[in-house]
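does this look right to u?? magnesium ion version
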Amino acid sequence: MKFVTFHAGDGVARLGVYVQDGRVLDLVRSFPSNSVFLNMLSFIEAGEDAVELVRRTIRQGDYQPGLLHDEDAIKILAPIPKPNRNIYCVGLNYAEHSEEWTGNQSLPQFPVIFTKVPTTVIGTNDTIQSHQGLTHELDYEAELAVVLGKGGRDIPKEAVMDHIFGYTMVNDITARDLQRHHQQWFIGKSLDTFCPMGPYLIHKSSVPDPHQLNIGCKINGEQRQSSNTRNLIFDIYTIISTISRGHTFEAGDIIATGTCAGVGMSFNPPKYLKQGDLVEVEVEGLGILRNVVG
Ligand code: MG
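got this back:
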């Protein structure tokens, strides 16, 4: 199942789901008296019963045709436009990318974790600000992101899947010069618009194995990154289990799992982003996350 947050011309953010013919069903208006369907976060927090209700509604065609929208007639927002908390991110989680950044030093023994503030989030087709004058090394990072459906602390690896709602994509935009200057990565990765996310939130039931997905990034049509999530150094179970030790996750938390080789910094000379560039992040089965640098 493919969920989306969208506008339909009236400027109001709505929760939707794709039905069989590729159109988007407005779930807010389908269940007007049910606050669970008010937005993506309330829906996620409601748990798998709410997902099952939507699944049954779609299967039975039990909705008003007037509540369906053609995809090209709506504006897709980030699936969670305003996360409640920072986005958790894993650094150096593909061996070849780790070597790009560290210069062939040994691979991390423990997951490298940092966060991006919620105000970095933008949706597909939104503009990535180039922040000229502040950075001269604007870079891209295609990543698979996990969204939690259930919070918790001290989650064992074998229980992690029970806590996952689904998957989306993140482009972990980074100002390399700021990342380097400040050592701690927060500033270089938390400027406004530095977290394109989406376009969809795909329920876990539609992703049989999140560790077998092709992942890549194109700049102006040129393939720069290309790998597979099977190459993650720390898999999703390890990442979530590790962070949850003594730390309480909440439903709706987002965890970006790290990027693969081929970021702009890795080329000689580097191929940093410039105004007008089209950046396309793609993870198999999750759509394409498209943004232009402005
Ligand atoms: Mg990253």
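The CA atoms of residues 242 and 262 lie 27 Å apart. idk if thats expected tbh
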